[in-house]
Amino acid sequence: MLTLKNLSVSVESTEIISDISLSFNSGQVTVITGANGGGKSTLAAVMMGISGYETQGNILLDGNDITDWPVEKRAQAGIFLAYQYPIEVPGLSIKTFLSHAYRSCKGSALPLTELDKKIVDAFHKVGLPADYINRNLHEGFSGGQKKRLELVQMLVLEPRIIILDEIDSGLDAQGMAMLIGVITDYRHAFPGAIFIIITHHRALFEPLAADVQLVMHAGRFV
Ligand code: ADP
Ligand code: MG
């Protein structure tokens, strides 16, 4: 269970998130909607432990206070964030990135052939051409392809708390069906997984039958 206790977040003394208390329970899907600028991405970043925010209050993971944990430690604990705007990393191959990320998250490396197989499987599931595996991280990928590559990372790293920030933006109709299928299959494979899905689209959250639906406005849930 991931719990936010009286969480407030500011950037340069401007409050963006105001006193949120909330729990995300094991096995549940929570959907967060709300107009632009409401604080959804900021909340996602703070749950992941991205630096640069002034926070008050606490974040607890299974009762442990992780408020001061850096990103790497949270990733090792199984927290994963698919960014609204994935960053291109020229010179870093997808394979190299995933092998480092896997070793860092899981504590031990996967033999290369096994990792390759996992990546190829994931590419297949998200509908990316298999030969893209040799490309650099997000470099030159279209908007929808970047979102698919974020899902590849989820499938390879197998996190248990998955925050998807507008993962559906830029996806075509086929991509949307793929996304719903990937999330549904993942929940069957990992019944305890916690999904926190930020989206504007009914076409995503209705088929997923979210357990909790929240609307964020001006840094609060309304
Ligand atoms: P949403 O994802 O709901 O559209 P965001 O969390 O991206 O909203 O942004 C919430 C508000 O916080 C916006 O007004 C945005 O401009 C502001 N904000 C977020 N990050 C920063 C930052 N690093 N510096 C200044 N303002 C920021
Ligand atoms: Mg956002």
Task: Tag the structure with descriptive keywords.
single chain, 7 helices, 6-stranded mixed beta sheet, binds adenosine-5'-diphosphate, globular, 222 residues, alpha/beta, Rossmann fold, binds magnesium ion
Brief rundown of the structure:
37% of the residues lie in helices and 29% in strands.
Description:
With 222 residues, the chain is of the alpha/beta class. The protein has one domain (2-221): Rossmann fold (3-Layer(aba) Sandwich). The protein is 37% helix and 29% strand. The chain has seven helices and twelve strands. A six-stranded mixed sheet has the order 6-9-10-3-11-12, sandwiched between helices. α4 crosses α5 (143-157) and α5 packs parallel to α6. The longest helix is centred in the last third of the chain and has 17 residues, at 173-189. The chain is globular and about 45 Å long. The two termini are 22 Å apart. The mean pLDDT is 96. It binds adenosine-5'-diphosphate and magnesium ion.
In the CATH hierarchy, the third-tier topology is known as Rossmann fold
Shape: globular
SS element count, helices: 7
- Spatial order of the strands forming the largest sheet: 6-9-10-3-11-12
Radius of gyration: 17 Å
In N-to-C order, the SSE pattern is EEEHEEHEEHHEHEHEHEE
Percent of residues in helices: 25-40%
Mean pLDDT: 96
The hetero molecules present are: adenosine-5'-diphosphate, magnesium ion
Structural class: alpha/beta
End-to-end Cα distance: 22 Å
Structural domain count = 1
The total count of strands amounts to 12
Name of the level-1 CATH class: Alpha Beta
Name the CATH superfamily classification: P-loop containing nucleotide triphosphate hydrolases
Strand content: 25-35%
Low-pLDDT ranges:
none
Largest sheet, if any? 6 strands, mixed
CATH architecture: 3-Layer(aba) Sandwich
